[in-house]
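#onboarding

Welcome to the new folks! Below is a worked example of what a typical request in this channel looks like: someone posts a single protein sequence, and someone else replies with the predicted structure as tokens. Don't worry about understanding the tokens yet, we'll cover that in week two.

Example request:
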Amino acid sequence: MFRKLTNSELGRIGLEEYRKAEKAPLALVLDNVRSQHNIGSAFRTCDAFRVSKICLCGISSTPPTPEIHKAALGAEFSVDWEHFDSAMEAVGRLRDEGYVIVSVEQAENATQLPDFRPEKDRRYALVFGNEVKGVAQEVVDASDICLEIPQYGTKHSLNVSVSIGVVLWSIILNNFR
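Example response:
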């Protein structure tokens, strides 16, 4: 028999403890993500995996909004974020900070997610694109790595918030835990 755990039994840390906790050497870059629900979901997922920060770029909305909060459930207060006019601006800044730039996109010569092995002493910026157009080609061109999620059905892509969850779970599970 199984009994669901209560929130207090989960032993989650509080906001102040979270702010002081060690973060994964990962940043998320959202390249013109238009849905505020997808942005909120990205915040919540980044909180779950202790991602260092989110870069919201271009038309991507920024907190506070009711729509972001509805999906983030307060994670917009725990995860550091910054807005950039473009993903290229964010990528340039992150590269200057020593991040390896990784576009999550279907591209020639892309590394399949199960084959991706980050170096332990490096930081990685994971770029996720617009719900329709994906990651802008200029950002793909500026990337050090393209990472592809293997898919086996008839659809060409996953929802961006689902892709964020799949990629972060795989990288954290296989490399940083």
